[in-house]
Amino acid sequence: MQQTSQFGAYSGPGGPDTHRPDTQHLSASHPEAQTFHAPRPEPLIALGPLFHILWQRKGLVALVTLVSLVLAFLYVALTPPTYTAQGVIVIDPRQNRILNSQGVLSGIGANSAAISSQVEIIQSRNLLEKVFEDNNLASDPEFSQPRLLSRLTGIIRPQPAPTREQVFKNFASRVTVERQGLTYILTISFTSADREKAARIVNAIIARYLASQIDEKSSANADVSRTLSAQEQDLRDELSAAESAVEQFKNSHGILNVSGGRTLLQNQIEQLSAQLVAARERARAADTRYQQTADLDPDTAPLTRLFELLTSTSAAQLRADYNRAAANLSSLQASLGPRHPNLLVAEAELNRLQGLVRTEARSILSSIRNEKAQAETNVTRAEQALADLARQNEQASRSEVELRQLERQADAIRQVLEQTINRAKETGQLENLQNSDARIISRAAPPVAATWPKPALILPFAAFFGLALGSAMALYLGPKTHAGRTRNAPPPQPAYAPASVAAHTFPFAPAPMADPPAAACSIHGAPAHASHSTT
Q1: Which stretch of DSSP H or E encloses residue 90?
Q2: Segments in the chain below pLDDT 50
Q3: At CA 423, angle to CA 420 and CA 428, rounded to 5?
Q4: What pLDDT, in 10s, does the model give residues 106-146?
Q5: What is the C-alpha to C-alpha distance for residues 274 and 267, in angstroms, rounded to an integer?
Q6: Residues facing residue 86 across a β-bridge
Q7: What pTM did the predictor assign?
Q8: CA distances (Å), 353 to each of 317, 346, 357, in order?
Q9: Over the Cα atoms of the chain, what is R_g?
Q10: DSSP states along 413-456
Q11: In this structure, are residues 222 and 141 in contact, taking their beta carbons and an 8 Å threshold?
């Protein structure tokens, strides 16, 4: 709907902006009107009216804030204080070795996932249940009494007594384990209404955790020891059976062991080979002597050659007697006649000795021939015996292949048995020498200040909350109204009401078009508030 006046055509908000000649004339006639060109844009939300409403409703805001503070103060005063005790441990990835032997279970290691898993182990049900039972917490009223909400509902409908599972869950919910960043340090916390109890339970959890690591390693060592003991007995039985099979095989095949791991047959072959070499050597020596005396006839050979054969002691004495007799005969022949009795006796003695020499030489030649024949016979027998042993050794070698297989099986079982015995002894020694992979950095001490409630936090927050809630209620109710006027109806105002009045009436409504300045609305004395017809 457009508005017209004596100044010419004028469009309302949103209409065309036309410059009228009379307006231009007024601008030229009145310099003070030259500053008005267009209405100033109003902000989307006017803060002035908001503060005006809050100031009008300051009593409500103050009341809500006061109520919030009173409720917070009552909560702080009536809520029993709770205390949180903390203990700190470190997971040591290094392994302490008391002995050179290696334990059954290795350390936790430096793996980040392994360190993080310790958090879940400490909070596990198995560990916490042992702490719960050892400290007799099932009958502790702090954990068995129902919470505030349950007590309030119990007024309307009686609640049954809490079960042991509910009491344990209430206890476990107060345990907190945190890892400090990517370090090896773990913080164990427990919240309780009794500061001494909180510290005692934290230390009990830490002690149980350290003991569980030692118990786990000791239990593993005990299990391994029992397993090794059973395996040791089985291995002893297997070794006994394997050794019996080896001995039975040796007896059935005539294989006898001597010192050095050699068989009797092998030693016999070696000894016979040495005897054969010696027999051949003697046979060659006997043949050489025989060849030297083969053309010698003891009946016709000169005595000088026969004396070469006389090498024995008796033959040497006979030779000496013969030489003395020959010298005596030569001496007698020089002084006596051929028929002298003494000469005849000397000749007879010499002939006798000569006969003895030839008889001795005949015996020696016969001995040389016999020695040669005997040496050849010994060589033949030794060769035959060695050939027989070689055939036996060939048969025994085939049997020894199977024997060595049986011996290897027995040796393998023996080695495993020795390792099992040594490992069982080492494990038994380690069973009572186990250390924990964690150590305590800081034991839990009774906390000085309560963890909850915290007045320094609750009261400022309650004041801020009450102030915010009171302000929201004041803005929702809006400005106070006068008598006989509704809260949402705007008060009567001129046709061209100032923008500030409209904004106070409708704080979130767009501002109306500003009126032309008074100087521009009066021409030749015309009043500025003249109304015009509207079509």
Answers
A1: strand 83-91
A2: 1-36, 483-487, 489, 492-535
A3: 125
A4: 556 667 888 888 999 999 999 999 999 999 998 888 888 76
A5: 11
A6: 189
A7: 0.52
A8: 11, 11, 6
A9: 67
A10: HHHHHHHHHHHHHHHHHHTT----SEEEEE-----SS-SB--HH
A11: no
